[in-house]
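SAMPLE LOG
Freezer: B-3
Tube label: C17
Construct: single chain, 580 aa
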Amino acid sequence: MLEQRYRWKNKQLREHVAVLDGKIPPNTLLTNARYLNPTFRKWIEANIWIYDDRIIYVGDMMPENLSDCEVIDCSDYYLVPGYIEPHAHPFQLYNPHTFAAYASQCGTSTMINDNLMLFLQMENKKAFSLLKDLRNLPATLYWWCRFDAQTEILNEESVFSHSNVKAWLEHDAVLQGGELTGWPKLLAGDDMMLHWIQEAKRMRKQIEGHFPGASEKTLAKMRLFGADCDHEAMTGKEVLARLLQGYTVSLRHSSIRPDLPNLLKEILEYDIKNFDKFFYTTDGSPPSFYEDGMIDKLIKIAIDAGVPLVDAYNMGTINVAKYYNIEYLHGSIATGRVANINFLKDIHNPSPVSVLAKGKWVKREGRSVDLGRNFDWTQHEFGPLKLDWNITMDDLQFSMPFGIEMLNDVITKPYSVSIDLSVDTLSSDHDQSFLMMIDRNGKWRINTVIKGFANRLGGFASSYSNTGDIVLIGKNKEDMLQAFYRMKELGGGIVIAEHGEIVYEMPLLLNGLMSEKTLEELIKEENGLKIMLKDRGYKFNDPIYTLLFFSSTHLPYIRITPQGMYDVMNKNVLFPSIMR
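STRUCTURE (predicted):
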């Protein structure tokens, strides 16, 4: 990784200085630019010189050498730094490339990403090769290092080995450890997790918490262990509790927790006037949530809520950069920073009409600029899912005495099953359906019943899940089999079958977990899935997160995991998975 250790090589730094000396012309000159300066907390007019991916100078001077330099009069614009998403999960049907491309169009040109899917699906060497290639995108991608699988996997000790975690922590693209979804283990005495937190601190990297509903005492304990930030505050009172314990607070506005308007209202009611310890996150929402923007949307919510204008922008830019110790590269329009600049027509509308990312136009006057940078996932062993095993009616045997009841999109509790499960078709008079999770390698399965997912769903198959294992749901076993085999034929994806016909399919051709399609295409496909499921009795709002969190043991109360049916509160396997 030595070739990646420095952002710019010595030769490049000499060239940057040569631009100031007039020996080399800048690539782009922005004249009469009114830009937001976070130090002075006001708009300042200046000339901005850009060479390659870096801002070379901001001030009154003009370059001596303008040969082959693009000169742009910015009198009609307001310039702000590129926005930063500090808590992205770039595998929610989309992939890191398509997500970054779409985010850049909305002015979010820097993202700090979850590594969980890469950690579970790839060896470190291959994952780091992928990270290296992703550096060539116009957007800037950083990463976190997970300390737990967020579920009960069969070989957690070997996957989350000290050598694997430490290699990620030492990678220069990794800015933090966490998020700490496994914090109860830490409180219970997991010294390996505590050691990883210590290692992150030694490397001057941050620790992201995950503390929904945590008491003041728990927040204090986790702060002592090393947690720096938490994104799980759901009320103004919870925000205040985190601030008082010394946390930075990431204000979440996501598909399952669209809390920002209420959070800001209550923050302002507490008469909090200093916003330096706040930033925003959309927390890895599915594609449809981003239909009307990303961090730009959240800045607009803050402006409309009455947050001071400069603070509303700072929470999406400089505050994040300072927190992650990358202020020397990001978060402001200043000499030496990466040339990520958003061009606004109205200071009260943060959605940019033009965007520079690493000094390249990715959007200009409302139109996307095609940079011709398709990403070759096959070079990183991502392609159609290949299942060399089958399932039969013998696998679809259900006799579990209790099942899983959905309380909302993601919270599930156990309930006693009273219906006859020996039949091949369940009645549509109730909302109970067959549910099976099966290992993506075909080695084990878990069969139970789910209540509240739908009441008229024939067969549903998904290779998209938190663990990458296969989820089957339905009233009719034949339809479930047909959905599975169509999903297998596609090479992964989400499929609905009913009455012997395929009525919906969403191919996920990157290992059955991600699509190679654009966000715009995925938004249409996801909206179509929502309509199909609602018509069949799905009464919640976010089926993608429902699928993702079936096995996620950081949420109450019962989960299906590779180890079996898992009681989250008592931390034990109730019924082990069945080997095939």
